[in-house]
Amino acid sequence: MKLRTLLPLLILTASPALSQDAPIIHDGEFEYLRAQFGAEWDTQDAEVDARLAEIRDANGGQPPNFLYILIDDVSFGQMGDRKMNYVMGIETPNINHLATEGLSLMRMYTEPSCTPTRTAMLTGRHPVRAGVEEVKVALVGEGLPASEVTLPEILKQAGYNTAHVGKWHQGDIEESYPHNQGFDWAAFPLHQQVQLSLMTPEAMRANNMLGYVPEGQNNQFLLDERFKPYGLVTGVEAEAGGMAREIDMAAGEVWTQAKYEDMNLRYQQQVLQQLQRVAAEDAPFFLQYWPLYPLNFVYPDQAISRNGGFHADKLQLLDGWIGDLLDALEESGKADNTIVVLMADNGLMYHYEGTSGLNQLIYRGGKTQHLEGGVRTDAFIRWPNVIEANSAAGDIFHVSDIYTTMARIAGATDYIPRDRVIDGIDQTALLLNGEGHGRRDYVYVYEGPVLRSVVKQEFKMHLPAPGQPGAAAPTYNVYRDPREQHPLVGYSLWAGASFQDMVKRHQKMIAKYPHSEIGTGLPYEGIENLRPESELARETFMSWQ
Amino acid sequence: MKLRTLLPLLILTASPALSQDAPIIHDGEFEYLRAQFGAEWDTQDAEVDARLAEIRDANGGQPPNFLYILIDDVSFGQMGDRKMNYVMGIETPNINHLATEGLSLMRMYTEPSCTPTRTAMLTGRHPVRAGVEEVKVALVGEGLPASEVTLPEILKQAGYNTAHVGKWHQGDIEESYPHNQGFDWAAFPLHQQVQLSLMTPEAMRANNMLGYVPEGQNNQFLLDERFKPYGLVTGVEAEAGGMAREIDMAAGEVWTQAKYEDMNLRYQQQVLQQLQRVAAEDAPFFLQYWPLYPLNFVYPDQAISRNGGFHADKLQLLDGWIGDLLDALEESGKADNTIVVLMADNGLMYHYEGTSGLNQLIYRGGKTQHLEGGVRTDAFIRWPNVIEANSAAGDIFHVSDIYTTMARIAGATDYIPRDRVIDGIDQTALLLNGEGHGRRDYVYVYEGPVLRSVVKQEFKMHLPAPGQPGAAAPTYNVYRDPREQHPLVGYSLWAGASFQDMVKRHQKMIAKYPHSEIGTGLPYEGIENLRPESELARETFMSWQ
User: Fold this and answer.
1) How far does the CA of residue A359 sit from the closest CA of chain B (Å)?
2) So which residues are the signal peptide here (chains A, B) (predicted)?
3) Do B106 and A88 lie within an 8 Å CB cutoff?
């Protein structure tokens, strides 16, 4: 809590580090690269600036719009590729087509779970720096702190209209809500799909959640009725600075699969409406669509895919919706000056492998894990007449780079804070010049607050157990062994020391710029129509605090 | 041996089963399908015949040529796909391009190892029916029996010129040699890459074969010097009916990695020469190229791929060679009337996963295994102006279908024998009409002589242990669970009985048409210039027989 009270003071202080003439503070590893490539990058950057100015001039002085689509829990290869479609027995023709219209980032690293990936994209930082871990399903009284400077906040400063539709998962406290973090308008659920789709009578009957709903079992010894989350707020809508309003739920109403499906449909309709709204304005826009599907834990009454699994089938459905959204963008007349990014936030929920229809397709592991299967996702970027169609890049990219790169393209780099470490690298040169122009060859991979592995070039070291030397760390070549199953002892013997140096550089920067803490507060503040059961849930939650 | 002596008699007998008016004898499962779809297929077949006649008329009355390229030990996804290229850090642009020019068969099943897959393609039958298992690296005195009627034999009857270049692996007895099995000309090694690439001083030093060559260790207790294969015949060349001649090896010469690389280069040059020869003739041709690469067990002095593993790097090299071959086909003027098939014979040598640079990319398992990783391979078929470019089919195909389908297209169906079970299904309708026109939804998967699994539609049952009921068999949905790791008990409960019925139908047909036996004889007969060490090896081999 000490840091949290200190932070606003820090921001108000006119320290040299806050001057926008100061360089962005990057991690030690990036400086290590800049020492080797700085001159070359400076030359490239002058060309990048010229090209961005040219693009802006060709669009009436407007920087590009952004449509950022983030799909939940889909592993690398599970969308956007016909061959893998055949392997899985699903069809994603719209995403496949989008992939052919732009750049496929073949080494996009995310964080291993929903909350951290989204925080990294929003803040340009590893979420651990703001104390953010995966936000739990129930009440937590925590969330993305106001002290973080989000991408929509800096884009707004550069004149952008902003809107968020869909999953948010950044906490249940007022400062964490999207309309308090840079979005002009937002529709989002307070929690996530575990509450919304897994904790339903239908999912219980589908045998995935036996015991959650009271009908699931008859327990005469039961005391605590709040061990099973209760009375949680569902979907809300709000405008920047205003109160959020829960919609489509009456007091005492039971949340069901049908209501979840309605919510998904509603977000799809709302993203179309928001697109229409922002496209009609003169200002550039940043529109964010974070669908809840494919997550869903009930088999469809009528499968639309050959696979039929409850995630796979909804992924195919979602593909059609994305097609509709891209069509609407086309019809809006703004497609040519809009950068579309579509990616996943992390790997599949491997816990439901088999029944969900998704599986560890290429990389091992999934959501929550530092393995490639947890943190490698598909990412497609379309920028008409700028990014070459059907191109691909094997350069390493981290989701936090979206922050720094979009800021650069929007002309908003000056608004990136200079008082903290920014992990996101400006990758604009890669987008403009293609493969081989990436500016990172490393990624630090966390699971929550724990650094679990370090990626450098084609090598990946899983951190050794505490106290063990670097030579004891299993090290993999991700080209030869994408499933990280054959550590070669020789690798660690030569690379162990270099990897440990990387860890040290990273730790020294943390010592210099210590982590701040997650935002905390009373859950559900700023919601104007809390249901009685939500009030009760909050009271129970606060009972011991 | 009884069956083997009976077989020639059977063939000479003018039994009704031998009349070419008689239908081809297929397995029970196919008849089960024909009972459901026969009328529809008859209608389709009339259209297929009309279309084939039309194609022939458009080509001066000539049926199409065939160029059949079979790559060794490459799993599904490891070639022909840019995305997977990025995963693996290799480039196969020529095969990727070929894939876009024709039909990708997304469910091609092979046998799980080199010899059986090649036998199945050559004979249209599961190799177990002819007693064929994997041919060992050393002397065996066994091979593909003369009684089998091979695809080149029936194509020759229909007027084709034929040639074989590269790996053969069908035995070391005279009747098994390609020039005695239907090929006008053949260049091939008597054995396979374990001898040619793994049993070299260089591979030993690369730590893959420690102990094979005498320098590898000093063992004062050693008696048997033939436990390590010795004096094996290497590459030979021959014309139909003639003697084979070993080339490029002098008496006493040591086989080395350099000689292996020369052999690979030579086969590449020879397939180009053979293409020139057969393309210059009026008759249609069947040209078969079975490269030895990517197998090779020594790291390249200079890697050409990002991967650098000894198989992966050679796969990239081979891709360039295939590009050259396809260019030569184009230059020959025969490309338009030539069907090019490129596929792999089975999954990777997972034994070398990690160092080889190949890995169990999508499906689990590899060479020698009944798992999808062992028997699912890429297969691309290009037929200009007939097969739709960049098309794909999820229909099940088995490598034995190549036999029956090519025979149909060549107008050689009448030469398919009617006295034995032919497993290969005529899939011409699928090639002409595209996805959804396949004629099998099942495959029996053997490991050597043992039936290990049965595939039906999206389901795959691993056979239960002997004596166990069908409900005890693990059953998988290959769309939802391509790695066959999550057997669902409910599947076996409902599908177990149906799968057991399939096994029974298969067994009943075996009882009706019993397996014949593998050809046997004196190794190396029909080679005109055996080196003294090869003579010695043969003498030692025969010592106890």
Assistant:
1) 6
2) 1-19
3) no
Residues of chain B neighbouring A479 (CB-CB closer than 8 A) = 87-90, 306-307, 309, 312, 357
Residue in B closest to A311 by C-alpha: B480
HEC assignment per residue over A423-459: CCCCCHHHHHHCCCCCCCCEEEEEECCEEEEEEECCE
B66-121 tens-digit pLDDT: 999 999 999 999 999 999 999 999 999 999 999 999 999 999 999 999 999 999 99
Q: Which residue has the tokens 């961005």?
A: A52
Q: Which CATH class, in words, describes the domain spanning B2-7+21-213+228-433+442-446+514-542?
A: alpha beta
Residue of chain A whose Cα is closest to the Cα of B395: A86
Q: Which CATH number fits domain A2-440: 3.40.720.10, 3.40.718.10, 3.30.70.330, 3.30.70.120?
A: 3.40.720.10
User: Per residue in B428-458, pLDDT tens?
Assistant: 999 999 999 999 999 999 999 999 999 999 9
The verdict on a CB contact (< 8 Å) between B483 and A360 is yes
Confidence of residue B204 (pLDDT cuts 50, 70, 90): confident
What count of residues does chain B have? 545
Helix A257-279 crosses helix A310-332 at what angle (to 10 degrees)? Answer: 20
What is the ipTM, given to two decimal places?
0.94
Tokens of B34: 């024909």
Domain chopping of chain A, boundaries: 2-440, 457-512
For B237, list phi and psi in degrees, rounded to 5.
-135, 150
pTM of the model: 0.94
Q: What is the largest CA-CA distance in chain A?
A: 73
Q: How far is CA A27 from the centre of its chain?
A: 20
CB contact under 8 A, A356 and B81: no
**Could you give the 3-state DSSP secondary structure of residue B379?**
strand
Region label for B484, one of left (φ > 0), alpha (ψ between -120 and 50) or beta (otherwise): left
Rg (CA), chain B: 23
Identify the band that residue B213 occupies on the pLDDT scale cut at 50, 70 and 90.
Answer: confident
Confidence band (pLDDT; 50, 70, 90) for B465? Answer: confident
Give me the helix-helix angle, B310-332 and B257-279, nearest 10°: 20
pLDDT at A14 over 80: no
Name the residue among A77, A89, A104 with its Cβ closest to that of B458: A89
